[in-house]
Amino acid sequence: MLTYPYQERKLNLNPALIDEARTLAKEIVAEVKPFIISHSTVSVERAVLRLLGIDGVNSEGIPLPNLVVEHLQEEGLLAEGSARTLTRAFIHYGKSPQSLAEGIEQGTIRLTELPDFPEEVIENTARALALPAVAKIRAQRQARRAMLAQGEGIEPYLYVIVATGDIYEDVVQARAAARQGADIIAVIRSTGQSLLDYVPYGPTTEGFGGTYATQANFRIMRAALDEVGKELGRYIRLTNYASGLCMPEIAAMGALERLDVMLNDSMYGIIFRDINMQRTFVDQYFSRMINGFAGIIINTGEDNYLTTADAMEAAHTVLASNFINAEFAFLSGVPEEQQGLGHAMEINPDVPDAFLYEMAQAQLVREVFPRSPIKYMPPTKHMTGNIFRGHIQDALFNVASVLTGQSIHLLGMLTEAIHTPLIQDRALSLEAARLVFGVLRHMGEEITFKAEGRIQKRAVETLEKAVGMLRDIEKIGLFMALERGMFADISRSLEGGRGLDGVFAKGADYLNPFIRLLGAETEGREAFESSAMGGERDV
Amino acid sequence: MLTYPYQERKLNLNPALIDEARTLAKEIVAEVKPFIISHSTVSVERAVLRLLGIDGVNSEGIPLPNLVVEHLQEEGLLAEGSARTLTRAFIHYGKSPQSLAEGIEQGTIRLTELPDFPEEVIENTARALALPAVAKIRAQRQARRAMLAQGEGIEPYLYVIVATGDIYEDVVQARAAARQGADIIAVIRSTGQSLLDYVPYGPTTEGFGGTYATQANFRIMRAALDEVGKELGRYIRLTNYASGLCMPEIAAMGALERLDVMLNDSMYGIIFRDINMQRTFVDQYFSRMINGFAGIIINTGEDNYLTTADAMEAAHTVLASNFINAEFAFLSGVPEEQQGLGHAMEINPDVPDAFLYEMAQAQLVREVFPRSPIKYMPPTKHMTGNIFRGHIQDALFNVASVLTGQSIHLLGMLTEAIHTPLIQDRALSLEAARLVFGVLRHMGEEITFKAEGRIQKRAVETLEKAVGMLRDIEKIGLFMALERGMFADISRSLEGGRGLDGVFAKGADYLNPFIRLLGAETEGREAFESSAMGGERDV
Amino acid sequence: MSEVNLKAVRPYGDTLDDGIVQLSFTLPIPFGEEAKEAAKRWALQSGFQEPNISHAQDMGEGFSFFVVYARSRVTVDFTVIEVPQLTQVRLEKRQIELRIREEVRRKLVVVGACIESDAHTVGIDAIMNMKGYNGHKGLESYHEVEAYNLGAQVSCEDLLAKAVSVSADAILISQVVTQKDIHLRNLTRMVEILELEGLRERFLLICGGPRLSYELAKELGYDAGFGTGTYAEDVAGFVLEAVLRQRI
Amino acid sequence: MSEVNLKAVRPYGDTLDDGIVQLSFTLPIPFGEEAKEAAKRWALQSGFQEPNISHAQDMGEGFSFFVVYARSRVTVDFTVIEVPQLTQVRLEKRQIELRIREEVRRKLVVVGACIESDAHTVGIDAIMNMKGYNGHKGLESYHEVEAYNLGAQVSCEDLLAKAVSVSADAILISQVVTQKDIHLRNLTRMVEILELEGLRERFLLICGGPRLSYELAKELGYDAGFGTGTYAEDVAGFVLEAVLRQRI
Ligand code: B12
Ligand code: B12
Ligand SMILES: Cc1ncc(COP(=O)(O)O)c(C=O)c1O
Ligand SMILES: Cc1ncc(COP(=O)(O)O)c(C=O)c1O
Q1: Domain ranges in chain C?
Q2: Residue A176 and residue D59: Cβ atoms within 8 Å?
Q3: Across the strands, what pairs with B447?
C-alpha cells in the first residue's frame, strides 16, 4: 500500500542534518574502503569457488570449497585469489571446477605444479567460468520478477519465522504460514551456525532454535514456497541469514536458489557474534555485492542493539548505524530499493508514553530512508510469559507499523519469551496483524503530529544525536568506534574475535571475476539497473 | 487525565449544527414533558414509599412497597400519590411508614377510612417524612466526595462487570478486580430482572448472567468495595441498573446505598425490553431525578443500538439519541457532569479502515458533549470464540478510547462471545487497558486529523445525519419515532409493551414531596450545585 | 515431517507428536512459589508432561493465574470419528422457492422466537427477518414462506399457541444465553410442553444459537439444531426436505 | 463464596470449584466438524468435562487449531506443597559488602559466562556487569567482589580454565535457549567436566536463566539456580553465605 518513495513529512526534520549524516556515513565508509578492497577472506574465496560450481562434501563431511581453499592456503596460492588458480587448473586439466575440487580432495590433482598462461587467457577463461553462475542468478532474478507480477502481498509485508530445526518440519510450518497470510518466511538458523567457518551440506533435520542454512535446505524451502505461492496467487518471499563467518558463501547460495531477503549486516557479526571486524568488513562487501546483483533485499540488524542497550537511550545508535549500513550497501552496489534497514520497537512498555517514542523512531527511520524497504522488528526483550499481554504488545507494534508506513513487518509472537513459534502462534500473529492493518490501513494518511510535540521533539533529538555520533565516529574511524563499544554497548578490538586468520591481503595479481561481473558499476548489472533506477522494485 | 471540559476540536464540526441538534432535542423532550409531569406510575409510587422508609417483604416474598401500592390502587387512592395517603395515615395513627406498611400487610390498618387534614399540615408532614431519606442521600453524596478526595483512578476509568449470579461470589470477583486495577465495578443483573414489576429482596445467590439488584446486594457490595478501595487508596465506584419496570425504585435504593453509576436510559426499556413507552418516560423522569440529586452518574444505553443495527449505518442514531437522552436528563436535573452518555465500538472489523470510522464516532461524541463523563462500550457483536483475536479487538478499542479522551471505559473481555467474565479475563483486560493507556496516554494530544480526511468527513456526515434524524423526530414526535423503529430498527407502539397498566394520571391533589426536594430547581440541591457548576466533579 | 498417524492424533506445536498444549487457569490459592508448584502438580495430575509455568500472576484476594505450556500424551483416533450432521446440501434461496412452489405446492409456515428469559434476537432475526445476515436474506423475504418472528422473551406457551393458530410447519427457537445451562432447561421445557399437549409430532422443532449443534439438538429431542454461521437457506432447506419426507 | 478446601484445590473461573480451564492447541488433522469432534474427544480423554470448543480455525496444510474451555475435576493438595527454596534473606548490596569485608576478609571471586552455544548475555550481564539491572548494580560494581564476565558462547573448558586461573569461589553460568533441552545438556556437561577433573567441590556452581529454578539446579547437581527477576544481590548473598558456611 505504500507508494514509493514514502512521501509524508510529519516530523519537521531538518534536511540539512540528514544530508550531513549521509555525508558523514559516506566518509566513515570511505575510510574503510581501501582496507576492504585490498583484502579477501577464506569465505570470500569459498564463495567464489561455489559460484564457479564447486559444491559437495568429502567423506568426512568437509565441504569441497573449504578443502580447496585450505589446499590453496597451504600451498601459498590464496593471495592470488582462488579463481586464478582454479582457472589455471581448468585450462591445464580441461576439467570442470567441480572435478578439479574432487581431484584435489582425492589428492589426484595438485595445484602447485600448474603452468602459467597469458593474463588475458586467464582473465577471459575465469570470466567464462563465472558466467554460468551469473546467468543463473540473473535468471532467478527474472523468475522472481515474473512471479511477483503474478501477485504479491501489500506492505507492510507480513514476515514470520520458522525455526523447528528440521527443514521438513520447517516446510510444513512455512506452507501453513503462507496460507495463514504470511508474505515472507524466514528460516531461522541453528544457534551457532554463524560461528562455523564452513557451510553445512545437504538437507538437515537437526538444529537448535533454527535450521542450518544449507543450499539443499534453501532449495527445498524455495520449491515449497513457490508451490504454495502459486496456489495462493501470491509470491512468498524467502529469507535467510548471510551473516557470520560464511556470509559471502551463503549469499552465493541464496542468489543461486532465489532467496529474496537476506539478513546481511555490515557490523552485526562483529558486535553480536564476536567475529573479527576485518574479516566482517571484507566478507560483507562481497556478500552484499552478490545480494545486490541478485535483487535480494538485505536486512540489517540494528534491532539487535536494543536487545542489549536501552531503547530510550540508544535509539540514535540505531539510526547512526542505519546510515553506515546504507553506505556500505551502496559501496557494494546495493540500491536503496534493496536496503532493508532494520530497527525495532523495544522500549519498555512501562515507560509512560512509550508508544509515542516508538512512533517517533519508526517515523524517523521511514522519513530518512524513503526509498528503502525498511524492516521493523517487534517487541522481544520486554515480552514475558504472559502471552495475552504479549499479544497486545505486538498489536501496538502492528499499529505503529501501519501508521508509519513500514515496509517489512516482522511479526511479534505472543510466545516470544517462551519458545520459537508454534504453528498456531504464527497464525494468531498473522491474524492480528491483518486485523490491525485492515482497520488502520489509511490512518497514517489521516493524522499529523503536533508541531514541537512529544513525537516531533523525540525524533528531532534522535536525529541530532545520531548526527553527533556519526561526527564522533568520523573523527575516530569506525574501527575505533567499535573498540569503544559505541554500538549496543559492546566493545570489540581490531585483532580480536573469530576469523581473523581467514583474512589476507590480496596479492598483486589477485583475481576474482565476480567483482567485475556483479559489482556496482559493472557489466552484469545492466539488465536490471534501468528498472531499479526508475524506482520500481522487482525485489 | 482529562481536563474538563474536553478542549480539543479536531473534527472541524459546525457548532451551529450542534446547537441545532440540542435545540431540536430540547423541543422533542418538551413535547413529552407535559405527559410526564402529569403522570405517575406504580414504580414511582413504590420508590416514594421506599424513600419514606418502607422496606421488607411479606411471608410470600412480596415487597411491602408493592403491597401498599396495590392496596392504594385497589382503594382508588393512588392518583393522589402514595405519599399523601401515607402522610395522612402517619398523622392519624402516629406510626412510621414502615409500621403502617406492615399494618396494611397484616390488614390491621386500612387507608380508606383516614380523616383529612389541612393541606399545609399534610405537605409539611410529608416533607418531614421525606427529609430523612434526603439527608441520607445527601450524606452518601458527601461521603463519596470525601472518599474521592482520598484518591481515585484517572480517566478513562476502567469499568468492569461481575456477573456470577451470586452476590458473595460477585464480591470476591469485584474485590479482585479492584486489586487488578478496576476503577468501576458494575454488578450485572440477572437476565429478566428488568421485566419484574417488583424489586427482589435481600442478599441473593442465584441469577442468570447476573445477580439480582436488591438493596441488600447493593449494601454488601458497597461495603466490600469501600473496604478494598480504602486499602488501595482509590475509591472504587459501584454501578448497577436503574432500568426496567422498577427504575425509580432501584434509583432510590442506589441513592441510599451510595451507588456511583446507574445505567439509566430514557428509552432503553422501551426499545430493548419492550416496556411500554408511557411507563418508561414517567419512570425515567423520577429515577433520574433521584440519580441527579444523589450525584450518581447515569449511563445511557445507545451502545445497544449497534448490537442490533449496523454500526456503519446507524452511527447517527446513537448520536441523535444521545442528544435526546441528555435533554431528558436535564429535565430531571441531572447536570452534564453526571450524564454518562453511552456509545460503542461495534463496526465490523472486516470493514476496511473500520478503526478510522470508530475514531470519528468516538471523537464526535467526545467533542459534542465536552463536559459529560461519556461512556465508551467495547466491541461485543463481532467478538468471536477466538479469544486471542478478541483480545486484539479490545486493544484497538482501548487505543480509540485513550486517543479520543473517553471518560468511562467499559473493558472488553476476550471471552465476550463465550461466557460472562472469569476472574482472569477481567485481569487480562485490565492489564491490557492499563498497558495501552500508559503507552498512549498523551497520544491524543499529539495528533490532529487531516482536514477533510476520512475521519473528519465521517464525523461531519454522522453529525449531519443525526441532525436530520432529530428534525424528523421533532416533526413527528418521539412517540411516533419509536413506533417507526427509528432507534435500533425496533418498533414499539404507544399502547404496547409491558407495564402500561402501572401508569396513571396524577390527580389534582397528587403529592410527591421528593419532586420538590430532589428536582432540578429545588431546595435539596443547593448544597451541591455550587461545586457542580464550577465544573469540578464530585461524582 | 513424518506421516500423521490418524489412529493416534495428538496435539502439534512445531514437531509431529510433540503434544504441545497451552493452558490457562486460575487456582484459588495465594500467589507465590507454592502456587506455581500447585499449578505444575495440577498439570501433572491432569496427565500432562513437562508442564512449563510460563506465567504466574496474582489475581488478588487469594487467587493466582497461570499460563502453562505442557505436553500431552493423549491421542484420539481420528479414523473412527463420525459427526451426525445434516446431510442435506445447502440449497440456494431461488432453488428452495422453486421447489416449495413445485413440490410442496403451498407456502411453508414457520414461527420463531427467543424463548423464556432469552432476549438475544439478533440470531433469530438473522434467520427470519427480511434483512437476513451477511447478505443472505431471511425467511420473511421468501415468497413461499410465511414467517412469524415473535421476538424476544416469548414463553413456550405463547410460542406454541402461535404455532397452532397459524398451523405452522416448523417452530424455530433461539437460545443464546447458556449460563448455568439455562438454554438446556428452556429447550427441554419446550419439548416437554409439546409432548404434554401431544403435539410433538405435529411440528418440526428446530433450535439454534452459538452453542447449539445438530448433535446436541438431536439429543434434546429436536429435529435439528443450527450453530454459528447459519443462514436462512439452511433452515428453509431443512424444513422443505422434512416436509417433503413427511408426505411420502 | 464458600471456603476453599486447600486439600483439594481446583481451577476457578467465577464460582468455587467450577474447575474452568482454558486450552488451546493444534491437531494435525484437516479442519471441519470432525476435527472439532476430535478436539472435544481429546479434551474428554484428557479428563476434562463439558469441553466447549469455543473456536476452531484452519491452520492450513491439514492442521486445525482450537480454543477450548472445559471443566477439570482434578484437585491438588495445596497443604502438602513445599518448594525447595533459598532460605536466605535478600541482603542489600551495602550489607553484603560489609559482611564480606568483615567476615570473609578477602574479596570474593566469581567468573561467569553463557556457555556453549548460548549467546544470550543480557541475563548474565544483568547479574555481573557494572550497570546491573532494574537499578540493581551488578557484581562488577561490588568493591569486595572480583567479577570476570567472559560473555557469550564460552566453552565449558574455557570457563573452567578461567575459574582455576583466578581461583574463583563461584562459577556462574547462564542458559537461556532451552529448545530441545539444550540447556540441560550444556549444564550437565559442565558438571561432568568438573567431576572428571575432580574439581566439583572446589567451586560453587551456580546457574541462571528464565527457565531455571533453584529446584531444577539442585537436580542437575548445581549449588543453586536463579530464574527470572534475579538481581546481583541474590547471587552475591548466596555466595557469601556458602563461603562462610564452608569455613566452619
Ligand atoms: C448482542 C448481544 C446482546 C444484546 C441483544 C440484542 C438483541 N436484540 O439480540 C443485548 C445488549 C440486549 C444483550 C443483553 C444481554 N446479554 Co448479550 N450478548 C450479545 C452479543 C454481544 C452478541 C450476540 C449476537 O447478536 N450475535 C450475532 C448473531 C447473529 O449470532 P447468533 O446469536 O449466534 O446467531 C447465529 C447462529 O447462532 C444461528 N442461530 C441463532 N439462533 C437461531 C435460531 C434458529 C432457529 C436457527 C436455525 C439458527 C439460529 O444463526 C444465527 C446467524 O448465523 C453476545 C456476545 C457475542 N459476541 O456473541 C452477548 C451474550 C450472548 N450476552 C450475554 C449475556 C449474559 C447477556 C445478558 C444476560 C447480560 C445481562 N445480565 O444483562 C443480557 C440479557 C439478555 C437476555 N435477557 O437474554 C452472554 C451470554 C453468556 C452465556 N454464554 O450464557 C454473552 C455471550 C456475552 C457475555 N460474554 O457475557 N446481549
Ligand atoms: C535478547 C534476545 C536475543 C539477543 C541476545 C543478545 C544478547 N547479547 O544477549 C539476540 C538477538 C542476539 C538473540 C539471538 C537468538 N535468540 Co534470543 N532472545 C532474546 C530475548 C528477546 C530476550 C532475552 C533477554 O535478554 N531477556 C532479559 C534478561 C535480563 O532476562 P534473563 O535472560 O531471563 O535473565 C534474568 C534471569 O533469568 C537471571 N539469569 C539469567 N542468566 C543468569 C545466570 C546466573 C548465574 C544467574 C544467577 C541468573 C541469571 O537473571 C537475569 C536478570 O534477572 C528472548 C525472548 C524473551 N523475551 O525472553 C529471546 C529468546 C531467548 N531467544 C531465542 C532464540 C531461539 C534465539 C536464537 C537461537 C535464534 C536464532 N536461531 O537465531 C538466537 C541465537 C542466540 C544464541 N546463539 O544463543 C528463544 C529461545 C527459545 C527457547 N526457549 O529455546 C527466545 C525465547 C525467543 C523465541 N521465542 O524464540 N536473542
Ligand atoms: C544481521 C543478522 N544476522 C544474523 C542474525 C541471526 O543470528 P545468528 O548470527 O545467530 O545466525 C541476526 C539476528 O537478528 C541478524 O540481525
Ligand atoms: C440502559 C440499560 N439498562 C439496562 C441494561 C441491562 O439490561 P437488562 O435490562 O436486561 O437489565 C442495559 C444493558 O446494556 C442498558 O444499556
Answers
A1: 20-78, 93-246
A2: yes
A3: A449
Residue D86's Cβ-side half-sphere holds a number of Cα atoms within 13 Å equal to 24
Q: Is the CB of B165 under 6 A from ligand 1?
A: no
Provide the 8-state DSSP code for D61: T
Instruction: Give the number of C-alpha atoms closer than 13 A to the C-alpha of residue D194, restricted to the C-beta side.
Output: 25
pTM across the whole model: 0.95
CA distance A496 to A260: 33
Task: State the complex-level ipTM.
Answer: 0.95
- Phi then psi for residue B450, to 5 deg, are -55, 135
Question: Which tens digits make up the pLDDT trace of C188-207?
Answer: 999 999 999 999 999 999 99
**For a pLDDT cut of 70, what percent of chain A falls above it?**
96
d(CA D137, CA D232): 7
- Given a contact cutoff of 8 angstroms between Cβ atoms, the answer to whether B88 and B82 are in contact is no
b/e B128-149 (16+ beta carbons within 10 angstroms → b): ebbeebbebbbebbeebbebbe
Which of D59, D118, D178 is opposite residue A424, by nearest beta carbon? D59
Q: Is the CB of B304 under 6 A from ligand 4?
A: yes
Q: Which three cell numbers stand for residue B203?
A: 442478599
Q: Is the pLDDT of residue B268 over 80?
A: yes
By CB atoms closer than 10 A (0-12, 13-18, 19+), residue D141 is middle
Residues in C touching D83 (Cβ below 8 Å): 33-34, 36-37
Are residues A171 and C69, on separate chains, in Cβ contact within 8 Å?
no
Cβ contact B191–C26 (<8 Å): no
CA distances from A535 to A288, A338, A529 (A): 20, 11, 10
B495 touches chain A (CB under 8 A): no
Give the span between the Cα atoms of B32 and B10, in whole angstroms: 35
Is the beta carbon of A343 within 6 A of some atom in ligand 3?
A: no
- For ligand 1, the distance from its centroid to the CA atom of residue B128, given in whole angstroms, is 48
Amino acid type, B283: D
Mean pLDDT by 10 residues, chain A (539 residues): 78 97 98 97 98 97 97 95 97 97 95 92 97 97 96 96 96 98 96 92 92 98 98 98 97 98 97 94 98 97 92 97 98 96 98 98 98 97 97 98 98 96 98 98 96 98 98 98 91 94 97 90 49 44
Cα–Cα distances (Å) from A241 to A190, B491, D92, in that order, read: 11, 64, 44
User: Distance (Å) from the C-alpha of residue A424 to the closest C-alpha of chain D?
Assistant: 7
Distance from CA of D156 to the nearest CA of A (A): 15
Partner chains of B (3+ C-beta pairs under 8 Å): A, C, D
Pairwise CB contact (< 8 Å): C74 & D26: no
Say how far apart CA A65 and CA A102 lie, in whole Å: 10
For chain A, the distance separating the N- and C-terminal CA atoms, rounded to the nearest angstrom, is 16
- Which one-letter DSSP state was computed for residue C100? I
Chain B residues with beta carbon closer than 8 angstroms to that of A393: 435
Spatial separation of the C-alpha atoms in residues A41 and A499, rounded to whole Å: 9
CATH for D20-78? 3.30.30.60
What is the distance in A from the centroid of ligand 3 to the CA of A428?
24
**In terms of DSSP bridges, do strands D20-27 and D63-72 run parallel, antiparallel, or are they unpaired?**
antiparallel
Query: How many residue pairs bridge chain A and chain D with CB atoms within 8 Å of each other?
Result: 59
- Bridge partners of residue C65, in order along the sequence: C26, C57
Same fold, C20-78 and C93-246: no
Type of residue numbered B32 = V
Digit-coded pLDDT (tens) for D27-51: 999 999 999 999 999 999 999 999 9
* Residue A498 three-state SS: strand
CB contact (8 A) between residue D55 and residue B385: yes
Would you say domain C93-246 falls under CATH 1.10.150.130? no
Question: B276: which 3 cell numbers?
Answer: 411500554
The span from the CA of D69 to the CA of C22, in Å, is: 12
